[in-house]
Amino acid sequence: MFYISALLLPIFFNLSLTLAIVWVLIFLIVNKKFNLELFLILLLLIRCFMFLDTQNLIIGSQFDVCREVFNYRNYNLVFLCNSKDSFISYFPKNSEVKYSDEVYLIGGKYKFDPERKPYYKSLNVNGVLEFNDYKVLTSKLTFLGEIYNFKANFKNFVQRNLNDPLSNLFLGILIGDRSGYSKFLTEDLRYVGLTHLVAVSGMNVLLVLEILKKITWIFGRRFAFYLNAIFIIFFAYFTSLTTSVLRACLMALLNLWGEYNFLRLDSLKVLYFSAYALLLINPYFIVYDLSYALSFLATFALISVKKTEKIVNNFKLEIQANLVSFWFTLPVILFAFKSLPILTVFSNLLVMIPATLILYLGLLLLVSYLLNFELLSFVIFFLIDLFTTYFFWIVDFTKKFPVMTLFIDNFMFRIILFLFFCTIFYIFLRKKFIF
Question: pLDDT digit string (tens) for 13-28?
Fold first, then answer.
């Protein structure tokens, strides 16, 4: 508990340098020597210092496109970097700016909206760059750029063969792409508690990895290990490197390494290490990125259920997993989203099987697209059309229920509800231990 407190407090207090130094002194007094825990926390604190706010921004006019370009309905979201700082910028929908391009902004102006600070910090950017016009100076060919180009071409392929909004739902389930979602669709999915199904999570990675293992074992243990690891890294970039994807892929890589070396790794320790590793990437995840908290809390809940890999094939385990995930993610949902899911377990159970089948069909479609099997692609699109239509039917059916999700603005009422559910959970644990 001491180390957990030391890990979190410097971040919650706005990465205070003074507070961090105090904690380091306390460590030295308590431990009386350097140990692994102290070293890891010092490493994290050093990383926190690197993220301290600075007023010495280098704006300039020349930037590199340093991350994937996201194509939304009315604009393209572009990440621009110079030698020191990172920014986001909104380019016209028809712009052809790509990853690793070097662009020159005409009339560039820096803008920082204090109300969007959590959004900026979660993305590790300093703010927004507005401009009057732009020029692409050079375009570089990189391996990562080719992955992003392949993803863009695959999205176009899906959108040509599947009508909207079915294509957008399918892309959300397969690769977590929600750039084409309307505000109404997003609100409907949130109300019926199915938003997590259109965001790539550990369950997606687990399903993909299980399929991959059944295919790659024929190449031998050593070669299969490298193939699986490479595919997981590719899948992480293909699904836009969100925090939930990073967590899931990092855990998958660690478990693969353990299997390859005949080691049984403790799932909770792997989860803790993944949480720590992501904080080294961006310490602000724990403060501003809600998906970071939801992902790790939900995964902790699933690990507590045991036999996570059998959840999809076991109706009882699926119910138990949904209930336990609800308990552990309740604080974030209740206080961050100001909502309380009531019957969302019901909607999740109704779409559990079709959502899994859509993911399997999506992976098969990806292979078919790579190999240019047009007839197979046609059959797959037909099946995807059926299952996504059913998915929307469930959304339309369950959103008519008046108590699927309650939205609660009163802060004191949320506290009372939280204490009430904590009491119920405590009584449940007293009767039947699930850990």
Answer: 444 445 555 555 555 5
The tokens for 347 are 């909607």
Residue 286 has pLDDT above 70, yes or no: yes
Look over the chain and give the mean of its residue pLDDT values, rounded to a whole number: 78
pTM score: 0.78
pLDDT number for residue 379: 93
The percentage of residues in the chain with a pLDDT greater than 90, rounded to a whole number, is 5
- Three-state SS sequence of the chain: CHHHHHHHHHHHCCCCHHHHHHHHHHHHHHHCCCCHHHHHHHHHHHHHHHCCCCCCCCCCCEEEECCCCEECCCEEEEEEECCCCEEEEEEECCCCCCCCCEEEEECCEEECCHHHHHHHHHHCCCCEEECCEEEEEECCCCHHHHHHHHHHHHHHHHHHHCCCCHHHHHHHHHHCCCCCCCHHHHHHHHHCCCHHHHCCCHHHHHHHHHHHHHHHHHHCHHHHHHHHHHHHHHHHHHCCCCHHHHHHHHHHHHHHHHHHCCCCCCHHHHHHHHHHHHHHHCCCHHHHCHHHHHHHHHHHHHHHHCCHHHCCCCHHHHHHHHHHHHHHHHHHHHHHCCEEECCHHHHHHHHHHHHHHHHHHHHHHHHHHHHCCHHHHHHHHHHHHHHHHHHHHHHHHHCCCCCCEEECCCHHHHHHHHHHHHHHHHHHHHHCCCC
Integer Cα distance of 204 and 235 in angstroms: 10
Over residues 287-313, the mean pLDDT reads 69
User: φ and ψ at 132, to 5 degrees?
Assistant: -90, -40
Residue 149 in contact with residue 114, Cβ under 8 Å? no
Per-residue pLDDT tens digits for 223-255: 888 888 888 888 888 888 888 888 888 888 888
34 burial (CB, 10 Å; 0-12 / 13-18 / 19+) is exposed
Q: Any idea where the domains of the chain sit in the sequence? A: 2-50, 62-140, 150-431
